[in-house]
Write a structure and sequence with these properties.
DNA polymerase, domain 1
C-alpha cells in the first residue's frame, strides 16, 4: 500500500510506525473508494500523528473527548514531527480523520444518550417492523417523533411509568411545539402519537382513551399536495438539461427517473447495478415507504441516459450504487445533492411552482398521467401507493397494468 503512494524510503518509514496493519487497511479502503494519491499521502502522515498523540500502543476504544484533547495538543505542537505550520484546520482535520479511522475499526466510542422509555420504544419498533411491515425509514421516523415526546414528558422529572401520562400531557406538548411547527407537522405528529398510544393501550402500558383523544389541527385536503411544476415546465426542464460535463450527464439521468417514473430521491440513491436488467429492458426499485421491490419497464431514453452516465461520467470506484458522489472517497449520493439538482434548475427556469424539490416532479408525473386518462388504480400502483388517496404504503402490483401506464408517452417533443 505505502509503496504505491510514497518513495521506497518514505514507505519504509511508514511501515516502521506503530499499528501498521490498522493504518494500511484503512488507507487501502480509501484507495478502493477512489481517494487520490495526494490525499492518501496526507492521510497516511496524519495517521502517524494520530497514533502518536493518542498514545496508542495497540488499537483500542477511544472517546471523542480524548480525540479532541489530542487534536488540541497536535495543533499547539512545535516539535520535530511538525513539518508544516499549524493552521485553523489542523485541529478539526485531526478530529475528522481520527474519528473516521477509529470508526472504520469499530473502536470509536459513541456518546451514549439516555433515551426515555427505551425498552418500550424498542418493543414498539419491532412491532411496526414485524406486524405492520413498515420500512426501516418509516419505523425510524416514528420512533424518533415518539421518543421526542417521551423525552419532553420525562424532562426535569424523575422517571415515571407510561401509566402516568395523560391526555393533558399530550395537549401541553402540542401547545409547546405550536410556535415551532406548522399545521402539517403537528398533524403528522398527532397521527404518530395516536398510533403509539393505541399500541401502548393494547399492552396496558398507559391509561385508556389517550389515543382516542389525540386530535391534530384540521388540514385541508389540498394543503399537503406539493405545488409542483406544470408538465410543459417539466419537459422544458428535461430539454434544457443538456451538456457534456459529468455533473450535467448525471443530472439528466436522475431527472428522467424523477419525471417519467415518479421515483422518490431515496429510491434513486439506492439503485444498484444489479437492479438493471439491460437485456430484458426492466429495472427494480427498492421502495422507500414500506420496503419491497417493484419492477419498471426501462424506457429507451432513460436507458440511454443512464448508460451514458455510467460510461462517460461516473467515477471509477468499487461502490455498487449507480449514482455516486464526484468527490472521493466515492459513495452513494447524499439526498441534498438531488435536491440541489432539481431546485437549482427549476429556479433557473423561473417556474411558478410553489415547490421546487424532487417530490414536486413526482407530483407532476402523477398529475400528467391522470390528465392523459390513466386509471387512478394503475397510477397508484405505478407510484407505489396502496390506495389512490394515500401516499407511502407499498403494495404488489400487476406488471401488465404497470406496463400500460409506463407506455404512455410523457416526453412529448423532447
Amino acid at each position: 500500500m505505502f509503496e504505491t503512494v510514497f518513495s521506497v524510503r518514505a514507505a519504509q518509514i511508514h511501515r516502521l510506525a506503530p499499528l501498521l496493519r490498522e493504518r494500511e487497511e484503512f488507507l487501502t479502503y480509501l484507495q478502493r473508494r477512489g481517494t487520490g494519491r495526494g490525499c492518501l499521502r496526507i492521510y497516511a502522515s496524519r495517521l502517524n500523528q494520530i497514533v502518536r498523540f493518542l498514545k496508542l500502543k495497540k488499537i483500542r476504544r477511544v472517546r471523542p473527548s480524548e480525540i479532541k484533547n489530542a487534536a488540541r495538543r497536535w495543533a499547539n505542537y512545535r516539535g520535530k514531527y511538525r513539518h508544516v505550520s499549524a493552521g485553523p484546520w489542523s485541529e478539526p482535520s485531526f478530529v475528522w480523520l481520527a474519528q473516521r479511522w477509529l470508526r472504520f475499526h469499530g473502536k470509536l466510542v459513541s456518546p451514549c444518550r439516555k433515551v426515555a422509555f427505551a425498552d418500550e420504544l424498542k418493543e414498539y419498533a419491532k412491532f411496526m417492523e414485524s406486524e405492520r411491515g413498515l420500512s426501516p425509514s418509516t419505523v425510524k421516523s416514528r420512533i424518533e417523533q415518539t421518543g421526542n415526546f417521551l423525552r419532553w414528558f420525562s424532562k426535569g422529572r424523575r422517571k415515571r411509568p407510561l401509566s402516568t401520562i395523560s391526555l393533558k400531557n399530550v395537549d401541553r406538548y402540542f401547545f409547546a411545539m405550536a410556535n415551532r411547527w406548522g399545521k402539517v407537522s403537528l398533524s403528522s405528529c398527532a397521527a404518530v402519537l395516536r398510533a403509539f398510544f393505541i399500541y401502548a393501550e393494547r399492552r396496558r402500558w398507559c391509561r385508556t382513551g389517550i389515543a382516542l383523544g389525540i386530535k391534530g389541527p384540521p388540514i385541508r385536503q389540498t394543503s399537503s399536495v406539493p405545488g409542483g411544476p406544470k408538465w410543459d415546465e417539466v419537459l422544458r426542464l428535461l430539454r434544457t438539461t443538456n451538456g457534456r460535463t459529468p455533473a450535467v450527464i448525471r443530472a439528466k439521468a436522475i431527472l428522467l427517473l424523477l419525471c417519467l417514473y415518479g421515483l422518490r430521491r431515496g429510491e434513486i440513491i439506492r439503485l444498484q447495478f444489479s437492479d438493471f436488467d439491460w437485456r430484458n429492458g426492466v429495472f427494480t426499485v427498492r421502495r422507500s415507504k414500506r420496503g419491497g421491490l417493484q419492477q419498471f419497464p426501462l424506457r429507451r431514453e432513460v436507458s440511454a441516459s443512464i448508460l451514458r452516465y455510467i460510461r462517460s461520467a461516473r467515477p471509477v470506484c468499487s461502490c455498487e450504487h449507480v449514482f455516486v458522489s464526484f468527490h472521493p472517497p466515492f459513495g452513494p449520493m447524499h439526498p441534498t445533492s438531488i435536491n440541489e439538482i432539481v431546485s437549482s434548475r427549476l429556479k433557473r427556469l423561473k417556474t411558478k411552482a410553489r415547490r421546487k424539490g424532487p417530490h414536486s416532479l413526482r407530483h407532476a408525473c402523477a398529475t400528467e398521467l391522470l390528465r392523459r386518462g390513466a386509471p387512478p388504480r394503475e397510477i397508484a400502483d405505478f407510484l407505489g401507493h396502496r390506495t389512490c388517496q394515500s401516499v407511502g404504503i407499498y403494495a404488489k402490483f400487476d406488471m401488465q397494468s404497470l406496463c400500460r401506464v409506463s407506455d404512455l408517452d410523457l416526453t412529448g417533443t423532447l
